[in-house]
Design goal:
- The protein is of the alpha+beta class.
- The protein folds into three domains: 3-88, Arc Repressor Mutant, subunit A, CATH 1.10.10; 108-171, Alpha-Beta Plaits; 191-277, no CATH class.
- Helices cover 53% and strands 13% of the residues.
- It has twelve helices and seven strands.
- The strands form two sheets. A four-stranded antiparallel beta sheet has the order 5-6-4-7, with helices on one face. A three-stranded antiparallel beta sheet has the order 1-3-2.
- A hairpin with a 2-residue loop joins strand 2 (68-73) and strand 3 (76-81).
- The longest helix has 28 residues, at 250-277.
- The radius of gyration is 20 Å and the shape is globular.
Length: 278
Amino acid sequence: MTAVEQATSPAGAGLQPRQLIVTLYGLYARERGGWLSVAAVVRLMADLGVDEPAVRSSVSRLKRRGWLAARREADVAGYALTDPAREVLADGDARIFARRRAEPSDGWLLVVFSVPESERERRHRLRAELTRLGFGTVAPGVWIAPGHLAEEAAEVLRRRGLAGYVELFTRACVPGGSVRASVARWWDLDALHDRYAGFLDRHAGADAGSGWPDPARAFPDYVRLLTDWRALPYADPGLPLDLLPADWNGARAADLFARLRERLAGPAAEHARALIEG
């Protein structure tokens, strides 16, 4: 996994300042050319309960990892998204906000790869990329995902310089035994179920109320919601519901995220703009 992508992988309840900064840049910097002043980032993060020293330390770390680049505008100090960071955010938009559930008619995508022992670092990177894309493991060197991810997977592997190590195959079905039983072996569904349960517990309280929320309250709620959510659509490739356990909670978590996004995004953006403009 590259440094830029590591910056986009929140752990869940213990959200780190750098993860919140990534969310802020994804939400509010791109409409401003990808740049925010240092002062604006400090103000935004203060409303998320993060003090200035922690902000400056996290920004410096993101700069070292290739996520942000220092830039002055009108003699004001700030940081801008790098091109690789913009690329990762654009990929994330499609996966996070426009994710679709696979249908049985989508079939399956198989990835078969072989990386020489002398290039172990590339093997590690390839496995990390496939994990990040939501692939399950069939056997060493054989990974699988729903067929609707074929275009995204091929493009990501090409951009990462890993396409030459893999063969991609699409199949209408997979041979041998029950597909439902196989899915439970290829993916750790219990762990994913627990992650969704944690998300539901943490954000159910923000689902109360009606009407236009207070922008000052909506802003931290929405930034934390999105930071907490954004790794889940990668861990879960959107498997067909009929292959998942009957008590699967991923759909409920996705519905909660969609409801809260619709309710909170507008007032949160209003508050963020006021903070950015000082």
